[in-house]
């Protein structure tokens, strides 16, 4: 299976550590494994792996994640 990637350095994905409650929903819904949970907070482990689908944004209960689909 080929690892599909987009251009490096263009993703608009942002995560607010202040707003994150560590629920892990972003990890569950992200199709590319962009997020990890560490010390009860989500972290972006692979920003360039983000395809800007918005699944994480739509499932984050605290609006800690933002992305502008189609820009990156």
UniProtKB/TrEMBL annotation:
Keyword ATP-binding belongs to the record: no
Record Pfam families: Fer4_7 (PF12838)
GO molecular function, one term: metal ion binding
Residue ranges annotated for the 4Fe-4S ferredoxin-type domain, each copy included: 11-40, 41-70
InterPro entries (alphabetical): 4Fe4S_Fe-S-bd, 4Fe4S_Fe_S_CS, Fe-S_Ferredoxin
Keywords: 4Fe-4S, Iron, Iron-sulfur, Metal-binding
PANTHER family recorded: ADENYLYLSULFATE REDUCTASE, BETA SUBUNIT, BLR5484 PROTEIN
Name of the protein described by the UniProt record: 4Fe-4S dicluster domain-containing protein
């Amino acid at each position: 299976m080929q690892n599909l990637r987009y251009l490096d350095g263009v993703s608009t994905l942002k995560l607010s550590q202040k707003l994150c409650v560590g629920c892990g929903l972003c990890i569950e819904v992200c199709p590319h494994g962009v997020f990890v949970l560490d010390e009860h907070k989500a972290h972006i482990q692979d920003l360039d792996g983000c395809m800007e689908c918005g699944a994480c944004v739509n499932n984050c209960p605290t609006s800690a994640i933002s992305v502008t689909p189609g820009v990156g």
